[in-house]
Specification:
Layout lengths: L1 H13 L2 H19 L11 H9 L5 H4 L1 H14 L1
Length: about 80
């Protein structure tokens, strides 16, 4: 009977580090998310985006008729 009591007492003492470790991991993840750079600073703008459009292998019909679509948008804005 004493062996069972010792085993049960040792079992509760052996797991004291699990909540501490869980808290440490959670705190580390929170700090990593807060400190991690957002990555939006390195986004290409202007000329690089234009180059991507030119280099794309998409249908160029939309780009060829861009003046028409601009005119259409202007006339719909003035009519509505």
């Amino acid at each position: 009977m004493q062996a069972v009591e010792k085993a049960s007492q040792q079992g509760t003492k052996a797991h004291w580090w699990k909540p501490v470790a869980a808290f440490a991991v959670a705190a580390s993840l929170v700090l990593a998310v807060i400190i991690w750079p957002s990555g939006t600073e390195d986004m290409p703008t202007g000329e690089l985006l234009d180059l991507e459009l030119i280099a794309a292998d998409d249908s160029l019909q939309l780009y060829e008729e861009l003046d028409f679509y601009q005119w259409l948008a202007e006339t719909q804005d003035s009519a509505g």
